[in-house]
Amino acid sequence: MNQPEINVGIDTSKGQLDIGIISSNQFSCASNDGNGITSAIEKLLLTHPDRVVIEATGRLEFPFAITAYRAGLSIVIGDAAHGGYLAKSTEKLRPYQRFCTHVLSA
Protein backbone atom coordinates (compact mmCIF):
# COMPACT_ATOMS: atom_id res chain seq x y z
CA MET A 1 0.00 0.00 0.00
CA ASN A 2 1.33 3.43 -0.96
CA GLN A 3 1.94 5.97 1.77
CA PRO A 4 0.46 9.43 1.19
CA GLU A 5 2.92 12.17 0.38
CA ILE A 6 4.00 14.34 3.27
CA ASN A 7 4.11 17.95 2.15
CA VAL A 8 5.05 20.83 4.38
CA GLY A 9 4.04 24.44 3.77
CA ILE A 10 5.78 27.35 5.44
CA ASP A 11 4.56 30.93 5.59
CA THR A 12 7.49 33.29 6.17
CA SER A 13 7.71 36.59 8.00
CA LYS A 14 10.60 38.56 9.48
CA GLY A 15 10.17 37.11 12.95
CA GLN A 16 8.28 33.85 12.50
CA LEU A 17 7.81 30.75 10.38
CA ASP A 18 4.29 29.28 10.34
CA ILE A 19 4.65 25.59 9.50
CA GLY A 20 1.87 23.28 8.35
CA ILE A 21 1.99 19.53 7.73
CA ILE A 22 -1.34 18.94 6.08
CA SER A 23 -1.39 15.14 5.90
CA SER A 24 -1.34 15.03 9.71
CA ASN A 25 -3.16 18.35 10.27
CA GLN A 26 -0.26 19.70 12.35
CA PHE A 27 0.56 23.37 12.60
CA SER A 28 3.38 24.99 14.50
CA CYS A 29 5.47 28.15 14.63
CA ALA A 30 9.18 28.77 14.94
CA SER A 31 11.18 31.95 15.18
CA ASN A 32 12.86 32.95 11.92
CA ASP A 33 16.35 32.97 13.41
CA GLY A 34 19.15 30.46 13.77
CA ASN A 35 17.75 28.65 16.80
CA GLY A 36 14.17 28.55 15.48
CA ILE A 37 15.25 27.36 12.05
CA THR A 38 17.44 24.61 13.52
CA SER A 39 14.65 23.45 15.81
CA ALA A 40 12.07 23.45 13.01
CA ILE A 41 14.31 21.47 10.68
CA GLU A 42 15.09 18.90 13.38
CA LYS A 43 11.35 18.36 13.87
CA LEU A 44 10.69 18.20 10.13
CA LEU A 45 13.42 15.61 9.61
CA LEU A 46 11.51 13.31 11.98
CA THR A 47 8.45 13.45 9.70
CA HIS A 48 10.41 12.53 6.52
CA PRO A 49 8.58 15.01 4.27
CA ASP A 50 8.53 14.49 0.51
CA ARG A 51 8.87 18.21 -0.02
CA VAL A 52 8.91 21.48 1.89
CA VAL A 53 7.39 24.51 0.16
CA ILE A 54 8.33 27.86 1.64
CA GLU A 55 6.83 31.19 0.68
CA ALA A 56 9.18 33.62 -1.05
CA THR A 57 9.10 36.77 1.07
CA GLY A 58 11.74 39.33 0.19
CA ARG A 59 14.58 36.88 0.80
CA LEU A 60 13.45 36.23 4.38
CA GLU A 61 13.04 32.59 3.35
CA PHE A 62 16.71 32.11 2.38
CA PRO A 63 18.18 31.18 5.79
CA PHE A 64 15.56 28.44 6.27
CA ALA A 65 15.76 27.24 2.65
CA ILE A 66 19.55 26.99 2.68
CA THR A 67 19.64 25.21 6.04
CA ALA A 68 16.86 22.81 4.99
CA TYR A 69 18.66 22.01 1.74
CA ARG A 70 21.90 21.33 3.59
CA ALA A 71 19.97 19.02 5.94
CA GLY A 72 18.79 16.98 2.95
CA LEU A 73 15.20 18.21 2.72
CA SER A 74 13.59 18.70 -0.67
CA ILE A 75 12.90 22.44 -0.61
CA VAL A 76 10.79 24.51 -3.01
CA ILE A 77 10.55 28.29 -2.84
CA GLY A 78 7.06 29.34 -3.94
CA ASP A 79 5.68 32.69 -5.05
CA ALA A 80 3.78 34.27 -2.16
CA ALA A 81 1.30 35.99 -4.47
CA HIS A 82 -0.07 32.71 -5.77
CA GLY A 83 -0.89 31.45 -2.28
CA GLY A 84 -2.60 34.73 -1.46
CA TYR A 85 -4.67 34.67 -4.65
CA LEU A 86 -5.77 31.12 -3.95
CA ALA A 87 -6.66 31.96 -0.36
CA LYS A 88 -8.83 34.87 -1.52
CA SER A 89 -10.48 32.86 -4.29
CA THR A 90 -11.56 30.08 -1.95
CA GLU A 91 -12.85 32.48 0.73
CA LYS A 92 -11.60 30.35 3.62
CA LEU A 93 -12.34 31.61 7.11
CA ARG A 94 -9.13 30.33 8.70
CA PRO A 95 -6.42 32.75 9.73
CA TYR A 96 -4.49 33.72 6.61
CA GLN A 97 -1.11 32.36 7.72
CA ARG A 98 -2.50 28.97 8.65
CA PHE A 99 -4.33 28.80 5.33
CA CYS A 100 -1.17 29.73 3.41
CA THR A 101 0.71 26.83 4.97
CA HIS A 102 -2.19 24.60 3.93
CA VAL A 103 -2.20 25.94 0.36
CA LEU A 104 1.57 25.74 0.02
CA SER A 105 1.72 22.14 1.17
CA ALA A 106 -1.28 20.88 -0.82
**Through-space gap between termini:** 21 Å
Q: Could you list the spans in which at least 5 consecutive residues all have pLDDT below 50?
A: 89-96
Helix content: 40-55%
Radius of gyration: 13 Å
* N-to-C series of helices and strands: EEEHEHEHH
CATH superfamily membership: ATPase, nucleotide binding domain
Q: How many domain modules? A: 1
CATH architectural type:
2-Layer Sandwich
Coarse structural class: alpha/beta
Number of helices: 4
Structural overview:
This is Transposase. By secondary structure, the chain is an alpha/beta fold. The chain has one domain (7-105): Nucleotidyltransferase, domain 5. The protein contains four helices and five strands. A five-stranded mixed β-sheet has the order 3-2-1-4-5.
Key words describing this protein structure:
106 residues, 4 helices, five-stranded mixed sheet, Nucleotidyltransferase, domain 5, alpha/beta, 5 strands
Summarize the structure.
By secondary structure, the chain is of the alpha/beta class. It contains four helices and five strands, in the order E-E-E-H-E-H-E-H-H.
